[in-house]
Amino acid sequence: MSGPRIHVDPSTFEPWRIQALTHDLGSHPLLQLDSLIELGKRQQGRKLVRTHNAAATAGTSFADAPNLHPNRKTAAEMLADIGQANAWMSLLNVQADPVYRRFIDEILDELQPIIESKDPGMSYRAGWIFVTSPGAVTPFHIDHEHNFILQIRGKKRLYTWDPFDREVVSERALELFHDEHSRELVTWKEAHRQRAKIFDLVPGMGGYMPSTAGHMVENGDEPSITISFTYYTASTRDNEMLYRGNAALRRLGLTPKPIGQSASRDALKTAVLSGYTTVMSAVRKVRGRGVRDNTVPYAPA
Known about the structure:
This protein starts with 5 loop residues before the first strand and ends in a 15-residue tail after the last helix. It has helices spanning 33-45, 65-68, 75-80, 82-85, 98-118, 171-180, 234-251, 263-286, and strands at residues 6-7, 19-23, 49-53, 87-91, 123-132, 137-141, 146-153, 156-160, 197-201, 205-209, 215-219, 224-232. The chain has 301 residues and is α+β, with helices and mostly antiparallel strands. α6 packs across α7 and α7 crosses α8 (263-286). The model has no long low-confidence stretch (mean pLDDT 94).
């Protein structure tokens, strides 16, 4: 195919701003049902499937939804009968599959020049495929990565929130999220709806969501298939490090200033924390302990 398959205007793209987009991926062979059923079988074998039934709501804990509302169907069974499955499913980290890794790379390679011009340092590439029965909900949550989310089949309503809206996600919630990978304080309130940017997605449409932008999805009255292409950049890595630094200061009994209030203060913190993190990572490696490295090309599965 000639030209980018995700249509993003380089002149208006802003890495920390939610925006609508269009795409030409609806007919891609790897996103057709027969290919997805085979991928589902492979991902099931890798234990890279997350699912819950249609009883989950916007306010259900995203982390606990699979246990609170279990779906007993396998990935292949659900894909074969999405309309009657009464469930939500994600095929996680599809870049773990060699065939789909090439696909993820093809798309992100097309987007990279636009992204890098304003938000350099792409890393931690990943792909996620969401399969949703009519009426099922993706509970309210946030993620670490920047995200291009594209509708392939069916209709859904995507609610998104500015990543800097502290009425929706507080500074303390972000500290806990970045420091402990916990969404405990990322909680749903019905009042959030009036602050949301809403995308009514149909095939060929999509949205771009920056790192930590709150989002929640309500599926339409037919089966839905959606794919997300996600990644980190230097700015998402710095943002995570700053919030982890503030969490450490809070544990010392201090009250750190919110991130984003002062660019010079944030830059100084980033420099200090970067040096400290480099030293501590080296110490952990010498001691044979694991180190999470979000600068690697692909997110680990």
